[in-house]
Amino acid sequence: MRALLVVNPAATTTSARTRDVLIHALASDLKLEVVTTEHRGHARDVARQAAEGGETELVVALGGDGTVNEVVNGLLHRGPDPDALPRLGVVPGGSTNVFARALGLPNDAVEATGALLDALRDHSERTVGLGHAAGTPGTADEGVPARWFTFCAGFGFDAGVVGRVEQQRELGKRSTHALYVRQLMRQFLTEQRRRQSTITLERPGHAPVENLLLSIICNTAPWTYLGNRPIYASPRASFDTALDVLGLSTLSAAGMARYATQLLTSSPDRGPSGKHAVSLHDLTDFTLHSQAPAPFQMDGDHLGLRSSVTFTGVRRALRVIV
Q1: Which of 87-101, 159-173, 303-317 comes out lowest in average pLDDT?
Q2: Element (H or E) spanning 51, and its range?
């Protein structure tokens, strides 16, 4: 099998020696080409070339969720076509690896490589759904490039936290769970000091959902991890359905404490609930509008401020080796 391995050398949990071992293991079973990324967007570009070339059967992403997201966007540059596109393989190398763990893959890179090779020998794969986001036609965001996401997007508060974390990482801080908690508290204090703009969710055939201050769009559950603790913002979200949305209409201290506790104690059977919580399941098409430009993130990558984003849940978008 002809395969492309896309390696992020800055992946936080793999060393150069570990990557060499993994490359050797994969090359023993595959006709392997290896590309080491050199800049942001490089993984997307090489995955796109592999998809358009027509000879590559498998593209493996070795890195964190950001690397996986870039590879997926490269593969789906011309849209989903599971039967024609190369399959995706994932070897987790980031600090969280939400997509890989949601697929049931080991969080250790060496173990995940072994699991990938076993799955290839057993011809084991699944076709997963993905999320797609684009600027809403007729708005200031109309020309913003569309993009795919694998496990989540956020519009509002949680995206602001992601943006703060990225700023700290650019200053040399490590991406740790403690860093996320600190930036969450700072974002909360910032929101309390200023007038909060609200978000409206619109979908065909339904009344608008108004006055949201936080909106998390989930393509799978769990949505993220705190250490080894899975967080289920939308417990029914699945790679086999369209998109789920968790919205909150309060960011008061009491409300945040209540919903944070619910998230920390969430499970596959129980997510956040209450009079200020909105949970919507299996949405194919919807749009989020913000009164003022709000932070936006996809798969943990902060994409700046947006006023309106249109989402599509696409079932059976890409084949993944598992």
Answers
A1: 159-173
A2: helix 42-53
